[in-house]
Automatic annotation (TrEMBL):
<feature type="region of interest" description="Disordered">
    <location>
        <begin position="1"/>
        <end position="20"/>
    </location>
</feature>
<dbReference type="Pfam" id="PF00174">
    <property type="entry name" value="Oxidored_molyb"/>
</dbReference>
<feature type="compositionally biased region" description="Basic and acidic residues">
    <location>
        <begin position="1"/>
        <end position="10"/>
    </location>
</feature>
<protein>
    <submittedName>
        <fullName>Sulfite oxidase-like oxidoreductase</fullName>
    </submittedName>
</protein>
<dbReference type="InterPro" id="IPR000572">
    <property type="entry name" value="OxRdtase_Mopterin-bd_dom"/>
</dbReference>
<dbReference type="InterPro" id="IPR036374">
    <property type="entry name" value="OxRdtase_Mopterin-bd_sf"/>
</dbReference>
<feature type="domain" description="Oxidoreductase molybdopterin-binding">
    <location>
        <begin position="27"/>
        <end position="175"/>
    </location>
</feature>
Length: 204
């Protein structure tokens, strides 16, 4: 499947600008427990081992920032958001996947998950955000860490991330099993699974 061109500062089809920053998620906001928190990289890793960072270690990883647009499948968009945190490429460099990894599952608190093609996960705007506009995320927006993948609809970026699973085949995440499109490219308006074409995702 091809990729759409990124169009910074433009609205994808069917989207409207949102002022302010709504809170959108399923279920309760988890409480952050610093001594029990860890960020795990597991699955098909290059050396077969898992990598685990506690909160102090994760916070010490190289800090990056990106400015990007944010498109929610419920049709609101925010343009030019500044995110700070750990680039997905940094995680992959420090905890490399096996050569045959094609997808990742990003896991969050309460078993929430989202699947991504490795190339979307590694897009140069994809970031494990800890900050927005220089300020730490609030609990309802994903503190301490959320994924942001600006080239896809925002549900592809779990809040309250706890881990990354490297996969050698695709598997659906939480919303992708519940009616949302497996790929979620806003420029192609890939909102719902009934719009999927052969090859867009695993059998439902
Ligand atoms: N853990 C978790 N992350 C999630 C969701 C969720 O239900 N659970 N919803 C997603 C959806 S649909 C959107 S639009 C964005 C919203 O992020 P915000 O609440 O910070 O605006 O979070 C995404 N991340
Ligand atoms: Mo959303």
């Amino acid at each position: 499947m091809g990729q759409s061109e990124r169009r910074e500062g433009e609205l994808p089809p069917g989207q409207r600008i949102q002022r302010g920053w709504p809170v959108t998620h399923y279920g309760p906001v988890p409480r952050f427990k610093p001594d029990r928190w860890e960020f795990r990289v597991f699955g098909a890793t290059a050396d077969g081992d898992k990598t685990c960072w506690n909160h102090e270690e994760f916070s010490a990883l190289p800090y990056a920032s990106v400015v990007a647009d944010f498109h929610c499948v419920t049709k609101f968009s925010m343009l030019g958001i500044e995110w700070g945190g750990v680039a997905t490429s940094t995680v992959v460099k420090l905890a490399p996947p096996a050569e045959d990894v094609t997808h990742v599952m990003v896991w969050a608190e309460y078993g929430f998950s989202s699947n991504l093609r490795i190339e979307d996960f590694l897009d140069d705007q994809s970031i494990f955000a800890t900050h927005r506009g220089g300020e730490a995320l609030t609990a309802e927006h994903g503190f301490p860490v959320r994924l942001v993948v600006p080239r896809l609809y925002a549900w592809k970026g779990p809040k309250w991330v706890r881990g990354v699973e490297y996969m050698t085949a695709d598997r659906r995440g939480f919303w992708e099993e519940r009616g949302y499109h497996n790929l979620g490219d806003p420029w192609r308006e890939q909102r719902y699974s009934y719009q999927e074409e052969p090859g867009d995702g695993p059998e439902l």
